Amino acid sequence: MSRRTRSSRAAVTVAVIALAAAGCGKTSDVAKSDSGKKSDSGSYSGKGIGLAYDIGGKGDQSFNDAAYAGFEKAGKEFKIGGRDIEPQDGESDADKVQRIEQLAKAGYNPVIGVGYIYAPAVKEVSAKFPDTTFGIIDDEQIKADNVVDLVFHEEQASYLAGVAAAEASKKKHIGFIGGVDIPLIHKFEAGFKQGAKSVDPKIEIESQYLTETAQEGGFASPDKGKDAASGQIEKGADVIYHAAGLSGQGVISEAGEKKVWAIGVDSDQYRQNALKKYKDYILGSALKNVGGAVYDLTKSVYEGKPLTGVQRGDLKSGGVGFADSNPKYQAMTDVVDAVEKAKQEIIDGKVTVDTK
Length: 356
Prior knowledge:
Layout: H1 3-6, E1 20-21, E2 26-30, E3 49-52, H2 63-78, E4 82-85, H3 93-105, E5 111-113, H4 119-128, E6 134-137, E7 147-152, H5 154-168, E8 173-180, H6 183-199, E9 204-211, H7 222-235, E10 239-243, H8 248-258, E11 261-266, E12 282-288, H9 290-302, E13 309-313, E14 320-323, H10 327-330, H11 333-347
Parallel strand pairs: 3-4, 3-5, 5-6, 6-7, 7-13, 8-9, 8-10, 10-11, 11-12
Antiparallel strand pairs: 1-2, 2-4, 12-14
Helix pairs in contact: 2-9, 3-4, 5-6, 5-11, 7-8
């Protein structure tokens, strides 16, 4: 197995299925006929996996789709039921509580909120259903025996993205676009900048956030991403890294149209069908194995030994990484070698990546 292959082990393949309007938001189901199937040990009697998506919903080719990949894989492998529900535009915190409670009340186990926005809902509903295991992705504030905080060292993957960007840039001028100006996305920016400056301390880095709050559409507006990328390209950036969810599709499309490099996030965006028109300009993607976290949590519940507490993915565990699917990237041996060297230095503890 080559070093380049190992660096992309965290990637997941995403399949998108049709949606049907039902309940609070849009839902879809997997393995309906096997709903409530007992595990081999006879310990699982739930209805299946309950998954509530973050802003942007399924089809973002990034964060939510990574979660769906784990949902689908677990449902098929363990032959259990599953229901996933989309968010609605302009919804309130009460809507999120209703969505999580709807899944728990129906008997789904585990119930997983995709994104930090579900933290208040998971905290409230998990107290009402102590026998159900709840997962919350990208938040570690909830401390309860039946809640699993699924978090990641995003800054480590972003450091690799920064190394790749600085090595690949011909103009020594790169850019970062964050969806929303919040601490979680600051981790992406901090790691990216540190990685880039490890290659070239004088490199010029554009940095921009699309909105102050998620409600303003920072994670769900490709047009905002496209406009931001256009501005950074005009200023001279020839590699742009986004951490912007669905808005990142606009970043990638603009980069592709202007023939500069883009770096994707969360999923291996080079492999996403919706972005195939621009894939030649996707240098790589900073991976976050959200799908693996969903799968692992489901597996633990199915086997009757539910995870609990904080579960954090990093480079060493394969919970984060850098996708190397683009043959054009693989051909840039100097870039590949620099990224692999940086990865090993982080794993060995020689480099500690900034989070702010």
